[in-house]
Structures are given as C-alpha cells and as structure tokens.
Write a structure and sequence with these properties.
Distance between the termini: 25 Å
Number of strands: 7
Helix content: 10-25%
Bound molecules: zinc ion
Structural class: alpha/beta
Shape: elongated
Strand content: 15-25%
Largest sheet: 4 strands, mixed
Number of helices: 3
Order of helices and strands: EEHEHEHEEE
C-alpha cells in the first residue's frame, strides 16, 4: 500500500508524503483498513488515491478493503519525509519549505498594500529555491501551476519554470 503514488506527483509515494497513517488487518474478518489523511482540501487527488489503494490491495489478494479518512492531526507539508522531499527536488518540483521558515509569507492582510507586498517578496526570496540550480532568485508566475495543489514559479538564474508544492 505504501507504494501507492500521489496521482499528481507521480514520483512520491503516499507514505513519503505523510498521507498514509495506518494499515490494519482484522484477523477474524480479513478486512484491511487503511487510514489516510487528506492533503489539500478540495484536492481531487484524494479520490484517486483512495481508488489506487483499493486497487493495489485487491491486486495483492485482499478483497475486503476499507479506506478511512482522519482529519486530525491535520496533514501539513511538514509531514513530507526527507526522502519525499529529495524525490520532489529530483523531479524538478520545489519542496514546500518548513512552516517555521515561511512566517513572512503569511503577513497580516490588514497592512497597507505596499507593506504586505514587500514582506511577501522577502519571504519568497528566503524560502523558495530553484530545484534545478538551487538559486534563491525565483519568482512566482502563477498561484496555480499544473494543478490546484501546486503553483508555477520561474528561476531568474537559469530561466527555467518549475512547479512548487504549495505550503499548507
Ligand atoms: Zn535555476
């Protein structure tokens, strides 16, 4: 089951993303219960992940499969394992920065436009590095990349665009 990959980020498994919480098998009934935590709310990927888990277990010979969803503790990008982060980087996807490193990105919205825009630039420059050359000189092109869960960025150093998993 842990080999099931995120349908949107094919190189990373649900275990490495921290989505997979628990797999239990009831010896009496033979039922396999898989517990997962959804990532981004409204992300259609979770339905695909559920179906993939069922298919993987059916293929492995388990007919009675239940997939349960737990919302607490809530998933965050901090649950992505080091191996998962390395794979994301290797695939040219910038891994989300740890929560502690992106406080500047969450500047209060009540400030004036000029102030909040300025602090956002600072936070971005500190936290998002190009997955190809490692340059911190990057800019966000679009809040929405290939999917709603990713945003599109561009490196000013090597001029390559890249996807970034949105921090949550
Ligand atoms: Zn670059």
């Amino acid at each position: 089951v842990s080999a099931v990959v995120d349908p949107e980020i094919r190189v990373v498994t649900i275990e490495e993303l921290g989505i997979l919480r628990d797999v239990r098998r009831d010896d009496a009934t033979g039922r396999v219960t898989v517990t997962i935590t959804p990532t981004y709310s409204g992300c259609p990927a979770m339905d695909v992940i559920r179906a993939d888990i069922r298919r993987a277990l059916h293929t492995a010979g388990y007919d009675d499969v239940a997939v349960e969803t737990v919302l607490r503790p809530a998933w965050s990008t901090d649950m992505i394992s080091d191996a998962g982060r390395d794979k994301l980087a290797a695939a040219g996807i910038a891994p989300p920065s740890p929560v502690s490193a992106r406080s500047e990105e969450r500047a209060p919205q009540s400030r004036t436009n000029a102030t909040s825009a300025g602090s956002r630039v600072v936070g971005v420059r500190l936290s998002v590095r190009c997955p190809r050359c490692g340059s911190p000189d990057t800019q966000e092109l679009s809040r929405f990349g290939a999917t709603a869960c990713k945003s599109l960025w561009r490196c000013r150093e090597c001029r390559e665009p890249f996807d970034r998993v949105k921090p949550l």
